[in-house]
Structures are given as C-alpha cells and as structure tokens.
Amino acid sequence: MHGLGEGGSEDAQALVTQQDVSISGTESCVLCVCARCEMPIRERYVNRVMERSFHTECLRCCVCNEQLSSTCFMKEDCLYCKQHFYKLLMFYTLLFLFFFI
Ligand SMILES: [Zn+2]
Ligand SMILES: [Zn+2]
C-alpha cells in the first residue's frame, strides 16, 4: 500500500486545532516545539496539526508561503494550502500513470 488512492488517508486534509496553552499551565508549553522551525512555542495558542505543533507564523504553505488558517493539507511533513496540495496530488497521479500504464 502506497500513499496513492483511497488507501493514503495519512496524507490528506488536516484540521488545525488551536490549543490554549495559557490555561493548562506551563508544563505543556515546554513540550510544545514547533515542527517546522524546531523552536519552542511561547504563544498563547499552539496550532496543532496531526499531532504536531506549529507557531501561527510557521503555519504556511511550503510552496507559496501563504498563511494557513483552519484547514491545511499535509504531505510528507510539509504543509500545503488547498491549491498546492491538489496540484501536488495531480503531479503524483500523473507520475503514477506515466510509470504504470
Ligand atoms: Zn515555528
Ligand atoms: Zn500554496
């Protein structure tokens, strides 16, 4: 099973949940390290995407650098906006067709 087709539910649309870390105390703040820049997150809200944490500033599409809000797309640890995620999917599909047909 590769990430193509219906089987690859891991690389897909991901919901961003904002966690208010100021309520839960300091303990969880220490654990929050941004998955993109690897710096500790000291903001009030930590953006959680697929069990990873991001600074609001780091929640950007890795192609166009557009800031992402409530919905983003993740593939191979990179975040994408909707537009570029579908472009990427198209590219993988074409690549797949090219090699297997
Ligand atoms: Zn960051
Ligand atoms: Zn983009």
TrEMBL record:
One GO term (biological process): neuron differentiation
Subcellular localization(s) per the UniProt record: Nucleus
Keywords assigned by UniProt, alphabetized: DNA-binding, Homeobox, LIM domain, Metal-binding, Nucleus, Zinc
Keyword Chaperone set for record: no
Matching Pfam families: LIM
GO molecular function: DNA-binding transcription factor activity, RNA polymerase II-specific; metal ion binding; RNA polymerase II transcription regulatory region sequence-specific DNA binding
Gene Ontology CC: nucleus
Domain LIM zinc-binding residue range list: 32-91
Domain of life: Eukaryota
Name this protein carries in UniProt: LIM zinc-binding domain-containing protein
Natural source organism: Heterorhabditis bacteriophora
